[in-house]
Amino acid sequence: MAESKDDLVDSVYQSELNPGSETSKTGSPIQGNESTIASTDNDNSTKKRNISETYPNESSKTLSSDPHSALSRRGISHSTQHKKASVYTDTNQEVPAWMRSKLANDAAHKYDKYGGRRTVELTIARSEESKDPYAKYASPKEDEATQLQPEDPYAKYGARPRQQADSRVIRRDPEPERKRRHNRPEPVENVEEPIAEVAAYTSVPSLKGPGNKTDYKTFQSNISHKENKDINSIVRQHYNQRTHQSKLQGSRTRSPIYKMRNFNNAIKYILLGNWVKRRAPNAPLVFLDLCCGKGGDLNKCEFVNVDQYIGIDISDASVREAFSRYSQNKARFIPQNPQSKRSRDSRRYNFEACFATGDLFSYTIPEILEKNFSGIIDALFPVDAVSIQFSFHYAWETEDKVRTILTNVSRSLRPGGTFIGTIPSSDFIRSKILKKEFTEERTFGNDLYHVRFEQEPPEDGHFESPYGNRYDYFLKDAVDDVPEYVVPFETLRLLCEDYGLILKYKQNFPDIFNLEIPNYFSKLNKNLVDGMKRADGKYGVEGDEKEAVAFYIGFVFEKVGN
Ligand SMILES: C[S@@+](CC[C@H](N)C(=O)[O-])C[C@H]1O[C@@H](n2cnc3c(N)ncnc32)[C@H](O)[C@@H]1O
C-alpha cells in the first residue's frame, strides 16, 4: 500500500508557472498556470490499495450557491498562483479540508468520499434479448438461423485475488530535481521500455515520416514477451508506441481505417452531443475524460461547449500528446462565463484543461489528481459528465478493477450527470459464438479486425464468470493484438445500479449512426463528414468496416440522487 502520496508520484509535468504571461518557456500558450499536466505513475502492479468494506454515505457535495465560485477555474488558478502544484507543497501548509483529514488519518481512510467497496451479491437476470441483432452484419453462416440464447445468469461472481506485484514492470525513477525546478515536460520517449524494445522507432529513417505523400506506414507495435506481461504493462506500452509512431506514419487520410475512424468519431460526437448536459444555464460545464488517450475527444468537448476538461490515462506518452494538442489549440482568451462563450472561437479550445497519468482501474481519482492539482476535487467535482471511450473493456480482468473504475465514475458525477461510454458488445460476441463463426484458433473477424480468445469460449456463449474472459483484439493500423476482456452488458447494468447509475441508453454503432446522423450532418466538421463518404456516394462505413464497427455499442448511464 502506498504509505504516502509521494509513493504514488514518479514525475510531474507542469507548464511554466508564470502568471500574467501568455507563453510558457516550452512555447505553450498558457494563462497563469491553469494548463497543467501531471504524471503520476499509478501502476498497481507494485502497489496495493486499501479499500474499505463499506461505502460511506453518498456525500455528493452540493455546489456553492455561486457556481462560479464553486467550480471556477479561476478559483484553482488563484490558489495555485501562490502555491505551486501540490507536489512541491509542504504537507504542513494549508490543505483542503478533505485532505487534512486524510493526512491525519491512516492512509487507508484516504478519500473516503470516493468510497471503498462492499461485497454485494448480484442476481443477474437473464437477458431478455431474444433475437440476434447482429444477423445483418455479414458473416459466413448468416443463413443458419441460429437464435441468441438468453444471457448467462451470473448469479455469483467472486472477485479474483488481486494481481501479484509484477517485478517486470520497470518503474521510472523519481523525476530529477532539476526538471522539477524547471517544470518542463520531458522529451517524448518510451520510458518504461528497455532500448531494444523501441528499436523500431530509432531505426525509422526520417523523423519527418514517409517522404512520399502517398506512402503510409501502417502501425505495428513491438512488444516483446507479451505473454509474461500484465495487461497494464502491455496496454501502456502499446499506446505509448502508438503515440510515437502516429507522428511518423504519414497523412492520416491514407490510413486503411480512415473512414472507420471518422465513423467512430461521429458516433462519439453524437453520444456526447446528445448526453453531455450543463447543470444550469450559467453553470460551468465540467467534463471528465477517463482513459483520454491522445486527447482525441478534445474537439468533441469544444463541440459540446465544455468549460473545464480533465483527462487521465495510463499511457504517459498519450497524456503528453493530449496536453500538447490542447496547448497548441487553446484559445488565446477564454470567455469566463457560459453566456459570453456563445461567441467562442470554435476553431480553438475555449476551455481550461488539466491532464494526469494514472491507472484508473486501481486508484481513486483523488489519489491520481490531488497530489498534482491540490484542491481540484473541491473545486471542480462533482462533474457534469464522465466519458470512457473504447477503454472500459481493459478493466474487466477482475471485479476489483471494475468496481474501482465504477467508484471513480459514480463518486465523480453530480446527480443527473451522465456516464457515457463505448465498449465491445457482449451480444455481438455471443452471437459469433453461437453461430460458430470461429476458426480453430478461437478467432473471428475479417481482414480489418479480429478477436482471438485466449481459451475456448463456452459453446452456449455463457462465460462462467463475468470477469477475466480475455481475448486479443486486432484492428489494422490501430490495435495490435492487445488483450481485452468481455464486458457482459447485463452485469455492467446491474453493477451500475449498485453505484447509483441508471441505464438511459444503449445502442449498437450502426443503429446509433443510422438513427442519429441525419441530425448531425450539418453540425459536424466537413472533413469528418467527407471522410465517411463511401464508394457509392453515401456516407458511413463499407465492406469489412461494417462488421468491425458493429462490434461496438454506445451506452449512457445517469447518476441518480439529489
Ligand atoms: C483505444 S484507447 C482510447 C482513447 C480515447 N478514449 C479515445 O477514444 O480516443 C484506450 C485508452 O485506454 C487507456 N487505458 C487502458 N487501461 C487504463 C488504465 N488502467 N487507466 C487509465 N487508462 C487506461 C489506454 O492507455 C488508451 O489510451
TrEMBL record:
Family annotation (InterPro entries): mRNA_G-N7_MeTrfase_dom, RG7MT1, SAM-dependent_MTases_sf
GO cellular component: nucleus
Comp. bias (Polar residues): 12-43, 52-67
Keyword RNA-binding tagged: yes
UniProt region (Disordered), positions on chain: 1-94, 125-194
Binding of S-adenosyl-L-methionine, residues: 268, 291, 313, 359, 389, 394
Membrane is among the record's keywords: no
Alphabetical UniProt keywords: Methyltransferase, mRNA capping, mRNA processing, Nucleus, RNA-binding, S-adenosyl-L-methionine, Transferase
Site note mRNA cap binding, residues: 294, 300, 325, 393, 484, 552
Comp. bias (Basic and acidic residues): 125-144, 163-178
Transmembrane intervals: none
EC number, as in UniProt: 2.1.1.56
Residues noted as binding mRNA in the record, renumbered to the chain: 264-265
Protein name in UniProt: mRNA cap guanine-N(7) methyltransferase
Source species: Australozyma saopauloensis
